[in-house]
């Protein structure tokens, strides 16, 4: 993923570019994790290994600034509109001092914990701890032409041959106190593709096009309109979910079902309860990805069409 500066339009030639990615740590089973964040010295040592690995995939990556943090996160913490975790790294790095004598030299900038606290908004959320895949995010920045070339190489190669060096995997395992099954590098596009497959396997495939729009085109628009799924309209940076009354739900989702016996009414009530559970599930997934959700009460199709 190549990110343009938030303060400049993507079409502007002077807009800074960044490659966004992560060191992905696939953990063994239910093994414990001792540390979520590293002190600065350990974060710096791990970042040097990450920098060397990335230069083996794209030699010019060694001429770019590498910005990372000694912490690991759940995928939903990286896959959010505007890439806020990567932007936080970039903004913190903008305030890092640069040696005037080596102003043109590439830097490796690693943020670590002081008194067990990370700077800025870098603290991993305890709400998403314990997952089998943990991510150490990184940003590559520098001259736009070099960033573009490196980004193209990484986008086309990491998913197939992006395994981390053995020394990097062992260093991450020792530093964080966890058991690593596999360690590899991903761009955020690669990560999104992996999440799309996982959501498909988890029965959330219909939601992905809307979520993908929120991630890759936050100013875009997308509908989820595929019965029996909830009706959702993503627009202007928020997901508006139709909250149908029981009668409106019946008319939209079960128009063929009569409601003239206790048995039929019980069956429809169970289906409606399942629908409400699906609403809560989808709302929770969108919320985990920091997509704002608004429930809109709908008593009929006319209101739903104006969602």
From TrEMBL:
This is Uncharacterized protein.
């Amino acid at each position: 993923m190549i990110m343009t500066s938030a303060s400049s339009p993507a079409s502007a030639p002077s807009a800074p570019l960044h490659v966004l990615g992560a060191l992905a740590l696939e953990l063994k089973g239910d093994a414990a994790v001792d540390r979520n964040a590293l002190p600065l010295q350990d974060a710096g040592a791990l970042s040097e290994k990450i920098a060397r690995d990335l230069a083996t995939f794209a030699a010019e990556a060694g001429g770019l600034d590498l910005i990372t943090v000694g912490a690991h996160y759940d995928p939903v913490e990286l896959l959010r509109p505007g890439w806020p975790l990567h932007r936080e790294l970039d903004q913190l790095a903008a305030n890092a001092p640069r040696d005037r004598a080596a102003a043109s030299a590439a830097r490796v900038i690693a943020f670590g914990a002081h008194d067990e606290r990370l700077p800025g908004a870098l603290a991993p959320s305890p709400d998403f701890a314990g997952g089998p895949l943990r991510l150490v995010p990184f940003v590559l920045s520098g001259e736009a032409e070099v960033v573009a070339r490196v980004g193209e190489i990484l986008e086309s190669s990491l998913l197939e041959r992006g395994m981390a060096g053995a020394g990097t995997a062992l260093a991450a395992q020792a530093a964080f106190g966890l058991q690593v099954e596999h360690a590899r590098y991903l761009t955020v596009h690669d990560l999104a593709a992996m999440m799309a497959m996982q959501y498909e396997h988890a029965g959330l495939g219909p939601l992905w096009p809307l979520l993908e729009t929120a991630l890759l085109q936050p100013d875009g628009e997308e509908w989820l309109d595929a019965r029996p799924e909830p009706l959702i309209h993503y627009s202007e940076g928020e997901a508006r979910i139709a909250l149908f009354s029981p009668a409106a739900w019946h008319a939209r989702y079960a128009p063929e079902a009569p409601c003239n016996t206790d048995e039929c009414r019980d069956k429809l009530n169970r289906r409606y309860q399942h629908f409400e559970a699906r609403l809560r599930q989808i709302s929770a997934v969108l919320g985990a990805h920091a997509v704002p959700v608004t429930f809109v009460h709908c008593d009929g199709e006319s209101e739903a069409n104006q969602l």
